[in-house]
Automatic annotation (TrEMBL):
It holds the Pfam family ABC2_membrane_6. The keyword Transmembrane applies. This is ABC transporter permease protein. Coiled coil: none annotated. It comes from the Bacteria. Keywords: Membrane, Transmembrane, Transmembrane helix. The keyword Transmembrane applies. The chain crosses the membrane at residues 30-48, 124-143, 149-175, 258-280. It comes from Vibrio halioticoli NBRC 102217. InterPro entries: ABC-2_transporter-like.
Length: 288
């Protein structure tokens, strides 16, 4: 078993290192990406502090420190799981450069996965600053006893994020503008994953009793969004790992949450397989 993993890592090491160096070839992009996450953390932190302050420290049953801890966890998860597999795959399909990938001895998904790991290794530097900020701002509410299980959930979240990226990138076969796919994912992911608003809070907003028309619209919209999000794979990337660390929904068992993530990995593997097979059949290399 050890020799198998050693062989696996040695086979993918070249793709990992190549992706790592490619990320740092655009140093300004790396700095801006880190700056964006830091700004996002600080903006959400002070925004939600103001919201809770105007509601006497409690908002729809959630305490201020609890929700701020969730925000910190989500920003950390975002830094860990965000990847550009969909953009790279879509660009390879659009330009036809995918044929060069297919001439290599390893499978397409194998190459893409280790490239995603290389991208992650390049972002680990940014995780240090994000981690320090999270510990300083909201560290008191983190359940450190759950860190090992949070780590497991984080790895599963990375795999799910990768699978979703592969499916999105594969859709470039049927579109003329890969940039539109990227924007669609950028907008869908935050809304349906709990990244913008925690899903337990959406559930509470949907179950609230409005007193005016605006309140009715907010309640109905929150309810619809919650029921769509809870049955989507997006929430398995952000909401589940964050909930394990913060325990915003104590009724959600940790091990059952991990099983949900594993279930999504299996299901997304079954969904992505036809996409990949269609890609491979759509490109011919010297008639083969």
């Amino acid at each position: 078993m050890t020799s198998f993993f050693r062989s696996l890592v040695s086979s993918g090491y070249g793709y990992l290192v190549s992706a790592h160096h490619m990320i740092f070839a655009y140093k300004m992009n790396v700095l801006l990406g880190l700056f964006n996450n830091v700004v996002a953390l600080l903006v959400q932190y002070f925004l939600w502090r103001a919201i809770f302050a105007s509601n006497s420290g409690e908002f729809y049953g959630f305490e201020e420190s609890q929700y701020l801890g969730f925000i910190g966890a989500v920003i950390f998860i975002k830094q860990f799981t965000t990847q550009g597999t969909d953009r790279r795959l879509a660009e390879l399909i659009r330009t036809g450069d995918l044929v060069f990938k297919l001439t290599k001895p390893h499978g397409l998904i194998f190459q893409c996965f280790f490239e995603a790991l290389g991208e992650l290794s390049a972002r680990l530097y940014g995780l240090v600053l994000i981690t320090l900020l999270v510990l300083v701002l909201v560290g008191d509410w983190l359940w450190t006893s759950q860190l090992p299980l949070f780590g497991v959930s984080l790895v599963l979240a990375f795999i799910i994020s990768f699978q979703i990226s592969v499916i999105y990138g594969s859709l470039a076969l049927w579109t003329t503008n890969a940039w539109g796919l990227y924007l669609l994912r950028r907008n869908l992911f935050p809304l349906l994953s709990g990244q913008v608003i925690a899903l337990p809070l959406l559930r509470q907003l949907g179950a609230s009793e409005p007193t005016n028309v605006t309140g009715e619209l907010v309640a109905s919209g929150s309810s619809v969004l919650y029921h769509i999000a809870i049955y989507s794979p997006f929430q398995a990337v952000y909401q589940i790992p964050a909930n394990i660390l913060i325990q915003m929904s104590p009724d959600s068992g940790i091990y059952s949450s991990l099983l949900i993530q594993l279930g999504w990995i299996v299901l997304l593997s079954l969904i992505s397989s036809p996409f990949i097979q269609h890609i491979l059949k759509s490109f011919n290399i010297q008639g083969a």
